[in-house]
Specification:
Helices cover about 35% and strands about 25% of the residues. It is α+β, with helices and mostly antiparallel strands.
Length: about 100
């Protein structure tokens, strides 16, 4: 599992101009089963995405296709972790060491 932390690198007006394209991209990742949660940070200086996958390189390649990255308004920090304990709703994503 991965935590993708977005940090805006441009003013919010540039981020907002790309927001619709970013949401379309998010929806595609939800439909493919890669993303399971996402949202803005508070204060609004970026966002967080919870993603599932076994291949860090694939997640990095996917993040590079975000319109926010393509247009240079955010940077990603990707943290991989082993989800050994979850809520019942996330049980399908539990991992064993």
């Amino acid at each position: 599992m991965f935590v993708l932390e977005l940090s805006y690198t441009a003013p919010l007006d540039r981020v907002d101009a790309l927001l619709n394209a970013h949401v379309v991209w998010l929806d595609q990742q939800y439909e493919s089963g890669v993303f399971i949660a996402s949202g803005r940070k508070n204060p609004r200086d970026g966002g967080v995405i919870l993603a599932v996958g076994d291949d860090r390189a694939a997640i990095e390649r996917l993040a590079a296709t975000d319109p926010f990255v393509v247009e240079g308004v955010c940077a990603y920090r990707i943290t991989e972790f082993i989800a050994t304990k979850t809520s019942d709703a996330l049980a399908p994503y539990r991992q064993r060491l």
